[in-house]
Amino acid sequence: ETGVTQTPRHLVMGMTNKKSLKCEQHLGHNAMYWYKQSAKKPLELMFVYNFKEQTENNSVPSRFSPECPNSSHLFLHLHTLQPEDSALYLCASSQVAETTYEQYFGPGTRLTVT
Amino acid sequence: GQNIDQPTEMTATEGAIVQINCTYQTSGFNGLFWYQQHAGEAPTFLSYNVLDGLEEKGRFSSFLSRSKGYSYLLLKELQMKDSASYLCAVRDSNYQLIWGAGTKLIIKP
To answer: How many angstroms separate the first and last alpha carbons of chain A?
Structure first.
């Protein structure tokens, strides 16, 4: 595997379900990010981890819970979501956060909340 | 507030040239990025500008004017595979990335 991978690619869940999204980067980077991408809207940064420490939480509702066990893996735990949470969830990584390094993105998980 | 503006959609012809504009108002500036995103795929890095002027990379070029808060991405010799969304993003003074909503480019034969 190369680059940034995400699983699953598609997920349909009910509002009472609990699920997790997984991201793995094979680039030796130290920073990882979760973004939400909705149609015709800018990418919304949700969480940032730098050297496994969470450095950013952009007022994300508590029904989204991130976990970063090491610099290569990032999870997003989901519970009691709302239909408006349906979107493409993108994971990204970079050498270090809060620098000029570009970010490398995974293909995303298309989430539908019913 | 911080804001990035770019056209929602553009159409161009195969073999032609197209310019996608991006204007920004941010708290400070630490570089501007362009990404390409094909439908259903990951955004991929195209270019980075931090100084004024033109950066050329094959068929793609990116221009920056910091005094005007303005950038453009120039695509030459358009190919059908260039049909994608193009995202403009600016790093502010805190090195946070501020994203535009993207420009969907449609290439017609």
So the answer is: 32
Confidence band of B2 (pLDDT split at 50, 70, 90): confident
B67 inside 8 A of chain A by CB:
no
A105 touching B (Cβ < 8 Å): yes
Q: Say whether B80 sits in a helix, a strand or coil.
A: helix
Residues of chain A with Cβ-Cβ distance to B95 below 8 Å are: 97-100
What's the gap in Å between the CA of B82 and the closest CA on chain A?
Answer: 18
Whether B82 and B107 have beta carbons less than 8 Å apart is answered as yes
Query: Contact B96/A4, CB-based, under 8 Å?
Result: no
- Give Dmax (Cα) for chain B: 43
Tens digit of each residue's pLDDT (9 = 90 or more) over A30-59 = 999 999 999 889 999 999 999 888 887 778
Instruction: Decide: A102 and A76 in contact? Cβ < 8 Å.
Output: no
pLDDT, one tens digit per residue, over A10-32 is 999 998 889 999 999 999 999 99
What token pair was written down for B21? Answer: 């504009």
B54 touches chain A (CB under 8 A): no
Three-class SS state of A10: strand
